[in-house]
Design a protein that fits this description.
This protein has 596 residues and is an all-alpha fold. It contains 22 helices and four strands. It has two domains: 483 residues, Sodium/glucose cotransporter (Up-down Bundle), CATH 1.20.1730.10; 93 residues, no CATH class. 67% of the residues lie in helices and 2% in strands. The strands form two sheets. Strands 1-4 form a two-stranded antiparallel ribbon. Strands 2-3 form a two-stranded antiparallel sheet. A hairpin with a 2-residue loop joins strand 2 and strand 3.
């Protein structure tokens, strides 16, 4: 069977499974819709958390980033895994003991203020929409290549699937769907990694193949060979870093504290029966996440080596079918600058701007060698003729390595599982913020449970539509978009939550001031240096030499300073609030939780 047939079969079966689970576990109450009834087993919750956490950025983009950035890509591994340790130790058990449904719920009650609750709702919506844009873009990338539809159509299909099980099942449906999605995505990630590691290095374990020798008779270590390939083509050495250390630190720390402030991850710890189960869930989740995260550097190195060996100085006419299929998506493009029909791949941008296809009657217009013609002019300052989108590296890896069609289709299903699982969690955060934290807690306190559930489902449906728009018009490739969401979470939520747990003197004025200043500062920096607003500016203009992906660290520190200063200049919180803060930090009763 062809790759497309296998993809229809495997993706169709997995989608049927997700929808079936959603129907079986549909929510019948607001408690089931918001926190799955609070009775999820720690191991199941660990799997669901891992799937919620491992988005399209982890599955599709992270290895692609590392394969292009080399050593510098390690910041994503360190930040995203380190953040989970921080979350497990600092926040999860205390928030579970507080016993609320959402992060804005915690902030509203802890800071005894609907203003604080509203600010938290706005922050949750901004963070979640920034994050979900990357997920929908990832769905579109997978569909466009493997089901051979337009990227935008792929986004629409993804929206429809998420709409069914997020709106129908709420957190209950999402939780058990995510358990299935974790199994799909980890199997899909590991199978090609095992195959390719065995083929390239003779070692079936990718982590050992990564540090082993290649099976080409040279006896060279894989990373040494990759370094040499990079030097030959004019790229920086794969194992050498080029980022300033302050930026490496800032990005790593922003991703860590952003992880610990992500509302869709935090809410997962409200779904377990006891406080002790929140800690166990975090431990299981870290184990499940580590399986993929320790494999990603190997996948990146395998993909990069295979790609360079396959495309460099190869006649276009001799390129395998996968190359031309990816050209159709405009995520890979070749322009023959010297008219010799041979692909030249080396350092430098092949085009002025990003490649775009010219289409007539839905078909790509092809040049003399059959290549997809590009509207943008070729750049004249270098000899590089090949454009490769980083997001295709994991998806194209099995094809480049010439693995069986069913393995290629499995990777497509895994990428969709990763993107859809996280998208569903994010959309639930948005719908809950509207239905519970705005409608129930502020606008209509006496609303019936049935009406609240309708609001929650309506909020989820509206959020899907907005998410689809962002998926079609994303502010960058998947991992970059997601990294910005972490910066926003770090700048807004993390200080308010940590100070809310560990500082009895922190009051509503301090928390609200800090959140507003933090998220506005991060948004300004992101819009200016990532999207070119407010006069734009390049790397030389970055504040303190810190990139937009790392600026969440600076904004978080500013938030902390503002929060602490304002809280000390204004009245202390009421005594009952201080008692609550004291109570949630005391270990007694760690086997159970009580709400206030």
């Amino acid at each position: 069977m062809s790759v497309q047939t296998w993809t229809f079969l495997i993706v169709g079966l997995t989608f049927a499974l997700y929808i079936g689970i959603a129907i079986w576990s549909r929510a019948g109450s607001t408690k089931e819709f918001y926190i799955a009834g609070g009775g999820v087993h720690p191991i199941a919750n660990g799997m669901a958390t891992a799937a919620d956490w491992m988005s399209a950025a982890s599955f599709i983009s992270m290895a692609g980033l590392i394969s292009f950035m080399g050593y510098d890509g390690g910041v994503f591994l360190m930040g995203w895994t380190g953040g989970y340790v921080l979350l497990a130790l600092l926040l999860a058990p205390y928030l579970r003991k507080f016993g609320k449904f959402t992060v804005p719920d915690f902030i509203g009650d802890r800071y005894y203020s609907n203003v604080a609750r509203t600010v938290a709702v706005i922050c949750a919506i901004i963070v979640s929409f920034t994050y979900v844009a990357g997920q929908m873009r990832g769905v579109g990338v997978v569909f466009s290549r493997f089901l051979e539809v337009d990227i935008n159509m792929g986004v629409y299909i993804g929206m429809a699937i998420v709409l069914i099980y997020a709106v129908l099942g709420g957190m209950k449906g999402i939780t058990y769907t995510q358990v299935a999605q974790y199994c799909v995505l980890i199997f899909a990630y590991m199978v090609p990694a095992l195959f390719i590691s065995l083929t390239m290095t003779g070692n079936v374990i990718p982590q050992l193949g990564f540090i082993g020798t290649v099976e080409d008779g040279s006896g060279a270590y894989l990373l040494d060979k990759l370094d040499q390939l990079h030097r030959d083509l004019g790229f920086a050495e794969y194992t050498s870093g080029s980022k300033d250390m302050i930026d490496v630190f800032a990005i790593t720390f922003a991703l860590m504290v952003g992880t610990a402030g992500l509302p869709h991850v935090i809410v997962r710890f409200f779904t377990v029966p006891k406080v002790a189960d929140a800690r166990k869930s975090a431990g299981w989740a870290l184990l499940f996440i580590a399986i993929l995260y320790t494999t990603a550097p190997a996948v990146a190195a395998f993909a990069r080596t295979n790609l360079i060996n396959t495309v460099t100085n190869t006649e276009y006419a001799q390129m395998p079918d996968w190359f031309k299929k990816w050209e159709e998506t405009a995520l890979l493009a070749w322009v023959d600058k010297n008219n010799d029909g041979v692909i030249q791949y080396q350092k430098g941008a092949p085009f002025v701007g990003k490649p775009e296809q010219v289409r007539e009657n839905g078909e790509a217009v092809r040049g003399q060698y059959g290549e997809v013609k590009i509207t943008n002019a070729p750049s004249t300052d270098n000899a590089n003729e090949l454009y490769i989108d980083q997001d295709i590296m994991v998806l194209a890896n099995p094809e480049i390595a010439n693995l069986p069609a069913w393995v290629i289709a499995l990777v497509a299903a895994g990428g969709l599982a990763a993107a859809l699982s996280t998208a569903a969690g994010l959309l639930l955060v948005i719908s809950t913020a509207v239905s519970r934290d705005l409608i129930k807690m502020q606008i209509k306190p006496n609303i019936s449970e049935k009406a609240e559930l309708w609001w929650a489902r309506g909020g989820a449906a509206a959020a899907v539509l907005v998410a689809g728009y962002f998926g079609i018009h994303p502010p960058g490739f998947v991992a970059a978009t997601v990294a910005l969401a972490f910066g926003l979470a770090a700048a807004s939520f993390f200080p308010a939550i940590v100070l809310g747990v560990f500082d009895k003197r922190m009051n509503r004025e301090g928390a609200v001031s800090g959140m507003i200043v933090g998220i506005l500062l991060m948004l300004y920096y992101m819009l200016k240096y990532k999207l070119g607003y407010f006069g734009g500016g390049g790397k030389d203009d970055w504040w303190f030499g810190i990139s937009p992906e790392g600026f969440g660290t600076v904004a978080m520190v500013v938030n902390l300073i503002v929060s602490f200063t304002v809280s000390r200049l204004t009245a202390a919180p009421p005594q009952e609030v201080q008692d609550i803060v004291e109570d949630i930090r005391i270990p007694r009763g760690a086997g159970g939780a009580h709400a206030h």
